[in-house]
Amino acid sequence: MKIFFQKRIDSILIWGHGMQYFNEILNDIRAHRDFKIVKIQKHKPKDMRSFVKKMYSHDYAPFWHLKSKTNYLLKTPQEVGFVFIENSNPIEDYLGEGSFRHKESLTLKNFKEELRSKYNPREDGQQTHNHVLHATDSQEQTNQILKYLGYIEGVRLFNNSDAVINMPNHIKGCSKLNFRMLKVDEIFCNIATGDSWDQFTLKMVEIQKSPQFIGISQDMSIYKDYIDRYLGGPLQNYYNLEKYSDMSMNFEYLSPPHEVSFVIVEKRKGKFVILDGLHRASCHIKQGHGEIKVCQVLR
Amino acid sequence: MSSVEIDKFINLSEMFINLENQNYCIIKLPDIFPDYNIGSDLDIFCYDIHKIAQIILSNLQKFIKQDLEIKTIDNGSQIYIDVIRSNSIHFRFDLYGALPFYKNINIKSSFFSSIIEGSELINMGGSRVKVPCGIDEAVLRYIEYHEWYAERPDKIKHIKYLENKITSDNLDVEKLLDKLHYYTLLPKVRDSEKSLRNKGVTFIFDMRDTAKKILQSIRSSGLKFTFFKIIEKIKK
Q1: What class is the A8-158 domain?
Q2: What is the Cα–Cα distance from B26 to B94, expressed in whole angstroms?
Q3: CA torsion angle B87 B88 B91 B94 (round to 10)
Q4: For all residues of chain A together, what is the average pLDDT?
Q5: Which pLDDT does position A100 carry in this prediction?
Q6: Are A18 and A133 in contact (CB under 8 A)?
Q7: What is the pLDDT of residues A205-227, one digit of tens each?
Q8: pTM higher than 0.90 for the full model?
Q9: What are the residue boundaries of the structural domains of chain A, listed by start?
Q10: Residue A78 contacts residue A105 (beta carbons within 8 Å)
């Protein structure tokens, strides 16, 4: 019996040997009409064996059953990527037999199989079963993965409907907001500097010195390098170069239907720092505006 | 046109056109609507306070400038949207997602949805807005009078409004009393009794009254609501 439930949060885990296709897989996910990427996080497990076990600990089949199927993972590179998606059309069904019978999203199952046939390693021209990715069967499994990554609220992390404006999941607990006009030179942003997504520090700079602004005003390759280096670490939203490029051409800040998509700032040590909306702020400033309407969170 | 009129820049008519498809109900609609007095407020009951707040905000954001800000305070079941001009309140939208707390009268929480479901679409100064039906308006005014009459003698205006509605507009008194008694209960007066009893007897009576209150609450509002209410009281 198929169950047409409301949307749910799922997770796609890209194993080490699939990370070479990380950007391609992200593009495939983005192109799927039922999926919206809500978080991207890379991870370096300390011990691959216990990590694999942990990832399958909430599977419907007992781990001993999966052990032989997952042995190949122990030899894969110890860097994986989690892509959390909002699955707006899960089409859940009960699959499997006997004690292994379980609920699964048919939409995600079909998509997972498509990606595996596209990216799984091949031997003698044949697709192997050394899967490059694993996808959750249920939202409960996503909940456990998020908790493993340190997000104690689990999938509630993505519950942002109870707010005056749509807040990204890293901004929580702001009951007081102040919508106001600020001069562009009053606003700063944090950018990452350092060698890679897991070795970086944050530095506060003017918006005009950010890779986001330099990308659309001078050289897009600087922005591309920045995304490639830090995606999954300090950058956990999905950024698409083409989309950003297009956006910068035809952008009109707070125009319908985005009237309340404010750049969100917070005052820290006497300076207004962008918490969300650096791309929008960059586009707005590039158009020659000296002021911008912002939403200041007051904690 | 005077400078004061020019200063009243919020177009409430336009705003409520955008709210047409939403479930809401304006409480105590001012006679001058869609005009308004600077510094005044508008109370709105609605199921989805966040959705309504977003629509109001999308309408107001065009006015933001260096000396004009919009501040919002979200208490979960109530949102204030303050339009602040030159550091003073120009106008306030007060959105309620549940009945406000009344200390002098007990009201069933379901009265809130009854008001919204029974609201009427009226034409006021060329604007179409949803307001409580005649009976709900009368009940609300009586509640307002009862809550405040000891501190605010001017609240007698609500009783005068009721008298006028009954005599001039043939308000159905039987229906009014039916609804008033179904949804409200006057709390018991116990303070004077207390001083006459010793502490032990008072404790027993308090326990008995508490048990009665709990039972009453379960009957009127359900077990879940009562449970959370008790937890809330314990926390206080």
Answers
A1: alpha beta
A2: 10
A3: 90
A4: 91
A5: 62
A6: yes
A7: 999 999 999 999 999 999 999 99
A8: no
A9: 8-158, 176-298
A10: no
Dist. CA B178–CA B67, nearest whole Å: 50
Which residues in A lie closer than 8 A to residue B65 (C-beta atoms)? 181
What is the distance between the alpha carbons of residues B206 and B199, in angstroms, rounded to a whole number?
Answer: 10
Contact A259 B57 (CB under 8 A): yes
**Contact call for B57 and A179, based on CB within 8 A:** yes
A161 CB neighbours in chain B (<8 A) are: 50
The DSSP-derived string for chain B is --HHHHH----HHHHHHHTTTS-EEEES--TTTTS--TTEEEEEEES-HHHHHHHHHHHHGGG-BTTEEEEEEE-SSEEEEEEEETTEEEEEEEEESSPPP-SSSEE-THHHHHHHHT-EEEEETTEEEEE--HHHHHHHHHHHHHHHTTT-GGGHHHHHHHHHHHHHS---HHHHHHHHHHHEEPPP--HHHHTTS-HHHHHHHHHHHHHHHHHHHHHHH-HHHHHHHHHHHHH-
Number of residues in chain B: 236
Distance CA A160, CA A167 (A): 6
A61 touches chain B (CB under 8 A): no
Backbone CA torsion sign across A243, A244, A245, A247: positive
